[in-house]
Amino acid sequence: MSEFLESVPELATEPGAAIVLPPVAAMRSEVWALAWPVILSFALDSILGLAAMLMVGRLGAEAVGAVGLATQILGAVRAGIAAVGTGTVALVARYIGAADRDNAEEVLTQSVVFGVLVSTVIAIPVIVFATPLMSLFQVKGQMAAMGARYLRVVMLSEPFQGIFLMCASGLRGAGDTRTPLWIGGIIDVLAIFLNYVLIFGKFGLPALGVDGSAFATLIAIAIGGLLFFWALTFEGMVLGFRWDKLWPDLGLGWRILRVGNPAAIEQLVIQFGFVAYVAFVARYGDKEVAAYFIGVRILALSFLPGFGFSAASATLVGQGLGARDPAFSRRAGWESTGMAVVMMTALGLVFIVFARQIAALFIDDQRVILYTVAFMYALGAAQPLMAVDWTITGALRGAGDSRFPLYGSLAGFYGMRLFLTILIWYHHGNIIWIWWSLIADYIIRSGLKTWRFWGDKWEIVEV
User: What is the pTM of this model?
Assistant: First the structure.
């Protein structure tokens, strides 16, 4: 497997002079070199999600809703892991910018330790209270039962997910975005194969339906975590796993969490907001819920440049500040944002134009297709705003300024989207108006975060 792993030049092991940053004239190519592996990595993840949804969709709208709702809860409970990951990127990028490999490797090792601990602590109560958690969405019967079973099985993978995400975050902070691509790609292909085998009962195995999709996810994530662990221990990469730093260092752990905590709080609060949002959607009916989750899966492909350029801006902004060159960091943030806007807008237009044909691939219920198309129109139109939001958020987090994105996201989601959703539902408005409330959400988010990055307070944040 070593032939797949990127060869990265050795960094100095003694802190001192900063690394030599790439010339500003080459900024666009540098951003792209960091972004494309992340884009492709998340593209493979999205293809996995689409493939799994296509297979689950053959089981009916209830199965689609069950997996979608369980995934929504899964996103909320992973906020704690997101805190460790955000802190890891910021700190590793700063140390790499200062040519201090020893401290970068210590951050990576401690991130894995705390990622596993946090994810395990979170997983246990979710497994125990899976059924009551599903009831938050106001769904009952078969959909609720399938969703609870799916959630319990997938949550068993969380310690391995902690390893996977922390290793990927550390490598991306160091500028190695290709290794997460190769390992993630292998796991995504495996997961698609396992979904097919376990959902439909191939090669002599029983057909497990939604439960089969859950077990496929569990197995794939476990293997992914172990592969990352092996690569960072034995492959001599840009960063390595330090066995001598394995014992939890509460001081460094708190420092990592302190930088990432606002991102975790943001994810947690937003995800709980999504629980409320989907609960209002569920009051309209199962078909509306199914349409929402199908639409999100489809449009996830247009989000990919946002993920890639957000990662690139976080890495370059952090390294620029570590090298004491804030002008480089500022240029990197704006360049990443402009590239993200162009690509996400183009992809959003493609999905708008072919919305009906794409939605019909996932389910043959005409009413669900109608609602899905309407949702795709709204989300497609929001792509330029989402590009700005995500990429500037990445730049601010790379600088360690992770608190302001929290404020901006809360203002947009709760102050606009959820507020408008409640008003529309209360006045018996059409579900399509609820879909379009997200435009107001992202106007607020992107506007506030752009204003923050335009200033200079993020340049002096201590990490």
Answer: 0.79
